[in-house]
Write a structure and sequence with these properties.
Layout lengths: L7 H8 L12 H14 L4 H8 L6 H8 L8 H8 L2 H13 L1 H11 L3 H12 L8 E2 H10 L4 H16 L9 E2 L12 H7 L15 H14 L9 E5 L15 E2 H6 L3 E2 L10 E5 L8 E4 L1 H5 L7 H14 L16 H13 L13 H14 L9 H6 L1
Antiparallel strand pairs: 1-2, 3-5, 3-7, 4-6, 6-7
Helix pairs in contact: 1-10, 2-3, 5-15, 6-8, 7-12, 8-15, 9-10, 10-11, 11-12
């Protein structure tokens, strides 16, 4: 979803948005005129600016999609079962065989294993089959105008303008996801500018039609974001009785050897080198599946910031790499969206930082839940339950 430097001004606006982060809302036409003035100040000629923005329209369907992300409110077991099917596993194997040489190159050049690329390729577009039908420029300008996340989307408008300048985007014809991502692995314009690779050697970059371009661009981005070549990202584990659950969670790290000394064991195969640092996460509490995750797992948040999405993609990547189905366990009942909002509000009242009060159990809310569970003498696994909500 997310380097070819030509205009330093374009790259700087894509990375530093403090001066314009509040420039949102109001009359849409006036907002577009402001974007055009800013583009001119960056050195773009007026004719190109006018051509780029000529047909731009506010798209209410984009706003509706942005507000409708209910799937991210599902618990891990439900979410992963919704996204992972036998069909996707089968198609993953078929696409691996079709593009084996490309996956070999991705691993040799960038150290990114096939399972990771296959997982995101599957989740983002079903291996290129469903890339979205939203006009990309309309989507980006609409979301930049909307005041929910202007600091994310305003820079992408100018990155899309730079793509247009380079002949990589047609403001009328280019279509993709509602959030402005383009291509088989759904990259935002700034990431296309910064990390796109001509994987098939035809002299141009086409992330919508060329699997080699899309896959190698994804690998290049992960490597640039800090992926450590050929290191692991996740391994399912079993927790011992009596483990201090305050040590679990993405915030806390020990070496693999230290986790083993505490009694954490792999559910299959062998754990990686004992010197690697790792966290143990329990996405649906200590009675559900448990995973040991490594540095490369954290890098995946550069692709998508949703904890539930990244955890599921990382797990699916292990399945595509030969791991068995997780041990589902018997998790405690969680909270619905309204209850989650109530919980977040009560945590905020107690001084905890949960991020947005949105009814979604993200990393910040999990950390706050774990801390308050420890204070109240509950199993501190970061999984909120009706009991916890009642106690608060």
């Amino acid at each position: 979803m997310r380097i070819l430097p030509v205009m330093a001004a374009v790259l700087s606006v894509g990375l530093s948005t403090a001066a314009h982060a509040q420039s949102c809302g109001g009359n849409f036409g006036a907002f577009v005129e402001g974007l055009k003035s800013e583009a001119a100040s960056q050195g773009y000629d007026r004719a190109r600016i006018d051509s780029f923005f000529r047909n731009v329209r506010q798209d209410q369907a984009v706003i509706n999609a942005d507000r409708r992300q209910g799937i991210f409110q599902r618990p891990f077991l439900d979410f992963s079962r919704a996204l992972i099917s036998q069909s996707r596993l089968t198609n993953g194997q078929r696409n691996f065989e079709r593009q084996r040489s490309v996956f070999d190159r991705a691993q040799q050049q960038y150290g990114v294993q096939p399972g990771i690329l296959l997982a995101f390729w599957a989740f983002e577009t079903d291996f290129g089959a469903v890339q979205g039908d939203f006009n990309t420029v309309n989507a980006l300008v609409t979301l930049a105008h909307d005041c929910r996340r202007p600091e994310l989307f305003r820079p992408q408008v100018f990155a899309a303008l730079e793509m247009y300048r380079r002949g990589m985007l047609d403001p009328v014809q280019t279509r993709g996801a509602w959030a402005g991502e383009i291509g088989m692995v759904q990259k935002l314009p700034s990431d296309i500018i910064n990390y796109a690779v001509d994987g098939d050697g035809d002299g141009r970059i086409d992330l919508q039609r060329s699997a080699p371009d899309a896959l190698l661009s994804a690998a290049a981005m992960l490597r640039a974001k800090g992926w450590r070549p050929n290191e692991p990202w996740m391994h399912e584990v079993a927790l011992p009785q009596g483990l201090d659950l305050t040590q679990t969670g993405i915030r806390n790290e020990l070496t693999v050897s230290q986790w083993e000394q505490l009694g954490v064991r792999p559910t299959h195969g062998r754990l990686p080198s004992g010197n690697l640092r790792a966290s143990v996460i329990v996405p649906q509490g200590h009675r559900g599946p448990a995973f040991m995750v490594f540095h490369n797992f954290r890098v995946l948040f550069e692709w998508n910031q949703s904890f539930i999405y990244v955890t599921t993609a990382a797990y699916f990547a292990t399945r595509l790499s030969g791991a068995p189905v997780y041990q589902a366990g018997n998790p405690e009942t969680g909270l619905n969206q309204d209850q989650m909002r109530q919980l977040q509000q009560r945590l905020v009242q107690r001084g905890f930082d949960v991020g947005a009060v949105d009814g979604i159990l993200g990393a910040n809310t999990r950390a706050a839940v774990q801390d308050v569970q420890a204070q109240l003498g509950l199993p501190a696994d970061g999984w909120p339950t009706p009991q916890l909500l009642g106690m608060l």
